[in-house]
Amino acid sequence: MAQMNKPTKLILLLLSHVLFAVGGGVLGYLAHEKLVSSIAFVDEVALVSRAATYVDIQRAQGSTKDYKAALLAYLEVLEKYRHEPSVLFTERVHSVDKTLAYVRLARVAEAEGNRTEVASYSKNAVASCAGTGWKDCSKEKLWAITARLDKASFMGAGTNNERRGGSNVAP
């Protein structure tokens, strides 16, 4: 086998270092991108979970006004992340959350006697329901679903209104 001369050895050594540096740079870049996307995902999950928990707490412990404000803030959070790529918050999940939030807003409006808002929020709920894949998107069915979910929420059965002797249909 022929021996390599010094310039060939030097070129091969230099090329191996360049390849190592480029490979390390590519791996570093890919690791950085994965880390950034993971942090963004964790932020998204934390913010949506926090907003959902706040809605539940306000439903159980706050005033009707506070509950309504929490629901509207939750809808803003949902819209913020709607077009972000996510394995957890798909379009279908977004539609379900949005539908339920609008139904709850309609229930609040009904408790307040605001028929215009009831109609508006109910219309938005039915429109959002189209993206859920549910068979029945009637107002009655959606209201029954939210009543059942709210009664079984992690904050315990009942709302402030129920504990004060009011109807269990009120938000």
Give a structural overview:
This protein is mainly α and 171 residues long. The chain contains six helices and no strands. The chain has helices at 6-61, 64-81, 91-112, 115-129, 139-151, 160-163. Helix 1 (6-61) runs antiparallel to helix 2 and helix 3 crosses helix 5 (139-151). The relative contact order is 0.10.
Attribute tags:
elongated, 171 residues, mainly alpha
Helix content: over 70%
Secondary-structure content class: mainly alpha
- Detail the poorly predicted runs: 161-171
Please report which band the strand proportion falls in: under 5%, 5-15%, 15-25%, 25-35%, 35-45% or over 45%: under 5%
Q: Give a count of the beta strands, DSSP E runs of length 2 or more.
A: 0
Order of helix and strand elements from N to C terminus: HHHHHH
What value does the Rg take, in angstroms?
27 Å
How many helices? 6
- Report the end-to-end length measured between terminal Cα atoms: 87 Å
Give the overall average pLDDT.
Answer: 79
Largest sheet: none
Which geometry do the CA atoms define? elongated
